[in-house]
C-alpha cells in the first residue's frame, strides 16, 4: 500500500508547512510528489531547490527495478554540496516513498529514488535512509508505466547503464544504448516560492553512486 502522511514528531520544527507538491512531467505521465518537511527538513529543502533550479529536467529513470525502485538524478547538472542526514522518523519505505540515494553518512546530494514496491524490509536502517515524501495516490499508476526492461545498473550486475558512463557521456549514452528508458521532461514545485532557498552552487560535473 502507498505511504500515508504521518503526524509530525513531537520534536519536529513547528514552523514548517505540512507539505509541498513537486510535479515530475515524465514521458509516461505526471508524477506528483508530496514533500514532507516534517519527515526530512534537509532533504525536503534540497529536493525543492533541485526542482526549482531545473536540475531534475531531462533526466532518465536510469535504474528501474520492477517492484523495487526507480532512480534518477544522473548526470548531475552541477556539484551540489552534501546535506546532513535528517533525524530518524520511522516513516517506512512503502510503495511511493521518495528518498535520496547516498553512499554513507551525510552524503546526500542530488540523486533520488522512488519505491515502486514495499521496500521497508531492506531500507530505513541507515541514517541517510529517510523518506522526504511520497508519490500522491493519484499518481501511483504512473509508476507502473516506467520502463523496467533494463533492470539494475551495470555495477550491480543488471542490464542497465553504467553510472560512470552516464556521468561522462550524459544523455547521449543513455538514449543511444538504452532507448526504452523513461525520462523526466521537467520538474517544478507547484506551491513553493523558494523563500530562503540556499544559493545554488556553480555548475560542475559530479559522480554519485547508487544507494
Topology:
Elements: E1 20-26, E2 29-35, H1 41-53, E3 59-60, E4 63-65, E5 69-72, E6 97-100, E7 112-115, E8 133-135, H2 140-143, H3 163-169, H4 171-177, E9 183-189
Antiparallel strand pairs: 1-2, 1-9, 2-8, 3-9, 4-5, 5-7, 6-7, 6-8
What features would you describe in this structure?
It is a single chain. The chain is of the alpha+beta class and 211 residues long. It has 4 helices and 9 strands, in the order ββαββββββαααβ. Strands 3-9-1-2-8-6-7-5-4 form a 9-stranded antiparallel β-sheet. 41% of the residues are buried.
Question: What descriptive keywords fit this protein?
Answer:
211 residues; alpha+beta; nine-stranded antiparallel sheet; 4 helices; 9 strands; 15% helix; globular; disordered N terminus
Low-confidence stretches: 1-14, 196-210
* Beta strand %: 15-25%
What fraction, in percent, of the residue positions are helical?
A: 10-25%
Task: Sketch the major β-sheet.
Answer: 9 strands, antiparallel
Mean pLDDT: 88
Cα-atom Rg, whole angstroms? 16 Å
Number of E-type strands: 9
Number of helices: 4
Amino acid at each position: 500500500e502507498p505511504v500515508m502522511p504521518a503526524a509530525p514528531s513531537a520534536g519536529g520544527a513547528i514552523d514548517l508547512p505540512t507539505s509541498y507538491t513537486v510535479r515530475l512531467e515524465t514521458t509516461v505521465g505526471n508524477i506528483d510528489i508530496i514533500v514532507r518537511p516534517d519527515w526530512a527538513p534537509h532533504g525536503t529543502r534540497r529536493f525543492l531547490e533541485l526542482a526549482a533550479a531545473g536540475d531534475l529536467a531531462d533526466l532518465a529513470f536510469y535504474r528501474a527495478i520492477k517492484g523495487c525502485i526507480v532512480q534518477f538524478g544522473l548526470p548531475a547538472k552541477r556539484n551540489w554540496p552534501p546535506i546532513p542526514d535528517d533525524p530518524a522518523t520511522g516513516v517506512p519505505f512503502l510503495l511511493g516513498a521518495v528518498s535520496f540515494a547516498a553512499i554513507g553518512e551525510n552524503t546526500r546530494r542530488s540523486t533520488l529514488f522512488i519505491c515502486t514496491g514495499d521496500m521497508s524490509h531492506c531500507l530505513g536502517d541507515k541514517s541517510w535512509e529517510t523518506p522526504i515524501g511520497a508519490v500522491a495516490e493519484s499518481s501511483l499508476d504512473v509508476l507502473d508505466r516506467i520502463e523496467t526492461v533494463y533492470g539494475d545498473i551495470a555495477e550491480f550486475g543488471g542490464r542497465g547503464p553504467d553510472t560512470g558512463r552516464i556521468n561522462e557521456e550524459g544523455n547521449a549514452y543513455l538514449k543511444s544504448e538504452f532507448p526504452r528508458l523513461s525520462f523526466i521532461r521537467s520538474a517544478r514545485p507547484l506551491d513553493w516560492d523558494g523563500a530562503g532557498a540556499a544559493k545554488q552552487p556553480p555548475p560542475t560535473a559530479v559522480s554519485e553512486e547508487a544507494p
